[in-house]
Amino acid sequence: MRVLLVGAGGVGTAVTRIAARRTFFETMVVADYDPARSAAAVAALDGDGRFLAERVDAGDEAAVTALLARHGCDVLLNATDPRFVMPLFRAARAAGATYVDMAMSLSRPHAERPYEECGVKLGDEQFAEAGAWEEAGALALVGMGVEPGLSDVFARYAADELFDEIEEIGVRDGANLTVDGLDFAPSFSIWTTIEECLNPPVVYEAERGWYTTEPFSEPEVFDFPEGIGPVECVNVEHEEVLLVPRWVGARRVTFKYGLGQEFIDTLRTLHRLGLDGTDPVTVPGADGPVRVSPRDVVAACLPDPATLGERMHGKTCAGTWVRGVRDGAPREVYLYHVVDNQWSMAEYGSQAVVWQTAVNPVVALELLATRAWEGAGVLGPEAFPARPFLDLLTAYGSPWGMREQ
Amino acid sequence: MRVLLVGAGGVGTAVTRIAARRTFFETMVVADYDPARSAAAVAALDGDGRFLAERVDAGDEAAVTALLARHGCDVLLNATDPRFVMPLFRAARAAGATYVDMAMSLSRPHAERPYEECGVKLGDEQFAEAGAWEEAGALALVGMGVEPGLSDVFARYAADELFDEIEEIGVRDGANLTVDGLDFAPSFSIWTTIEECLNPPVVYEAERGWYTTEPFSEPEVFDFPEGIGPVECVNVEHEEVLLVPRWVGARRVTFKYGLGQEFIDTLRTLHRLGLDGTDPVTVPGADGPVRVSPRDVVAACLPDPATLGERMHGKTCAGTWVRGVRDGAPREVYLYHVVDNQWSMAEYGSQAVVWQTAVNPVVALELLATRAWEGAGVLGPEAFPARPFLDLLTAYGSPWGMREQ
To answer: Would you say residue A246 lies in a domain?
Structure first.
């Protein structure tokens, strides 16, 4: 397998560190808009000749297609922010490569009833092109990070092995991470966090289909395992709600993020002030007025989450809570994966949230390389058998857990 | 009198509308960095030939000096934001003109103990040059808006006519303004509001001199008159605390701003995220990276407060609460000035806070023109007799009030 990894930020760099310990691929070309970032990621791998650094603009579809061809890559792994999903997805198709991402094409709220009806949903643009992928016998494996990704694998595992009927599948994400000396330090890309949290959350119900609510709706306190404890969780727009119902039967699917009240208040304030926006505003620059996106300025004022690992303490938990019936009796389980920041820093030099996102697409690439996973079309992780994935994740030194509620 | 008004924003434009109804001056040159703003302010005055529009960079001291000379102006009225105090103050001195402003040179926190000791205080840079003004027999009348300004006049009035001894002088500012359709709409320049509210508040005590506290310290609920009612007020850095003790005897001087809890929380969040900062950050621009000041971006995302008058409802109150002794008995009064937005919009087309700031320097200019106020050096409003000011303000159609507590 020859892989083009696009994006050498926190997650992309962690992908290289995890993949470097595996033998399933021959080459991984690491490409970034900033050539210093791809060079640094490759340089850190102690001369592993399978890795090469390149520069590419992820928004330039033709340049990405050419780069795939030049290196004879058969897989493109997208580790950029979701704005670049569509050009990379199309570049992979044009080059005849398999495509893997960790977040799907962006949504647009319903023009008149944004908090009741879906407009353009997450992934809609990708699924609209599914026919072309199927006809070509080509695979786009979408939403293959930790959430979406591992959370979808858990949903499939529950359906296959734990339940006869499923009432509700609720992805629940929570952490007890803190950063020394910083009052406010998101542990993941603030650009993506704002996008997820301020868009209308989407919910699936079998009778009603997909619909939206007000941001931060249906707050609940979820008790996370391994010492993290109870965290206030709210509905957030997330790919699992769009992916799971396509392949797994469930009456209701939700995603709730354990943001905590302070973080919710901060996001609400950014929204109230218009600082979450991506449309440019005009401000004074050194040589006259310039136009900038407020959300980019928010990101520039905050520390890069990938650089905070040394000062971070605590654990992050991704998981899927499932309620239903087994052998005629009610059953409720939480399938989860916890990463301790101290462990991920010591083992890989990557902070916990970034590492947890990165490990899952590497496991998936290995399953594709060994043909344990095969398919054609635009498919989510729950379209594939779950057991090989969970076993290989454990073999990577990062076991998952299950709690009967 | 020939006046150079620098700054044709909300306050500057209101100055022209108020001055246009008076006869004490021959010429008012209206100059702004944006020539469209000065032209619009002059054009709105229905052909009053005393007003002329010019373009000037308020940071370019030599250009301002030349403009004063070219038009033979004997007074410079500064209606820009406080970053331009020093170049305009020096340009006036260089041109031999009287200088009037509504905010004083900026402070810098104490390097080691910012929330206990003063560093560079508001106005320190101006007072450092007081000798040169005195020797030249020239006048810089500083802090001559509403707060500072009218609030200082009230302090002097209390000392002269209402008290034998003063224990405490506390400026208290509160409003019940709302803006239709907007959750968050500061009624005054957000740049200045952030500067005032997030700098360490300064307090004066006779035994201790000036000292600072944590932001938002000593919360109290103050009951404002004319239907505004109780508002939560907190200590804020403001010029009155630096000006009043120089000319008026009082054991303690404070300034508290009726911000309300939501506004305080918003400012705290901006600070926590670094979005209150003025040092540039690097963000993507249309043609590559650009450097912008986060606080300018916050301002650009919010509506210009001067444009909100039509959608604003309510009243704003500026005033000075004084506690002391008269004829051997304790006394407590609140001297205040309330502007109803509906009235200021109908009469002048200016929103209440902007109009209230603008009327006071026009009254002061008229007192200087008629020689009711005379002096040399760098002087605050409390250095002059209060009664003529308060009478003329009433003659402008905007009476003040007094409440015995």
So the answer is: yes
Interface of A with B in 289-318 (CB under 8 A): 290-294, 296-302
State which residues form the domain around B72: 2-101
CA gyration radius for chain B?
20
B264/A contact by beta carbon, under 8 A: no
| Interface predicted TM-score (ipTM) of this complex, two decimals | 0.72
Same domain flag for B217 and B327? yes
- Statement to judge: residues A58 and A156 lie in one domain: no
Which of A265, A270, A301 shows the shortest C-beta gap to B281? A301
Q: For the segment B9-64, what is each residue's pLDDT rounded down to a tens digit?
A: 999 999 999 999 999 999 999 999 999 999 999 999 988 999 999 999 999 999 99
Opening angle at CA B23, ends B19 and B28, nearest 5: 50
Do residue B336 and residue B212 come from a single domain? Answer: yes
Check CB contact of B181 with chain A, cutoff 8 Å.
no
Are B82 and B195 within 8 A, CB to CB? yes
Question: Which residues, in sequence order, are CB contacts of A131 under 8 Å at separation 6+?
Answer: none
Chain B residues lying within 8 Å of A300, measured CB to CB: 281-283, 294
Per the domain annotation, does A393 fall within a domain?
A: no
Q: How many domains does chain B have?
A: 2
**In-domain check, residue A43:** yes
Distance CA(B41)–CA(B51), nearest Å, equals 9
Question: Which of A266, A292, A298, A304 has the highest number of chain B CBs within 10 A, making it the mutation to test binding with B?
Answer: A292
Quote the pTM value: 0.74
CB-nearest to B292 from A272, A283, A299 is: A283
* Same domain (yes/no): A170, A282: yes
Cβ-based neighbours of A175, under 8 Å, separated by 6 or more: A187, A224, A228, A231, A258, A314, A315, A316, A317, A352, A353
Judged by a CB distance cut-off of 8 A, whether residue B23 touches chain A is no
Give the tens place of pLDDT for each residue, B370-396. 999 999 999 999 999 999 999 999 999
Residue A279 in contact with partner chain B when CB distance is under 8 A: no
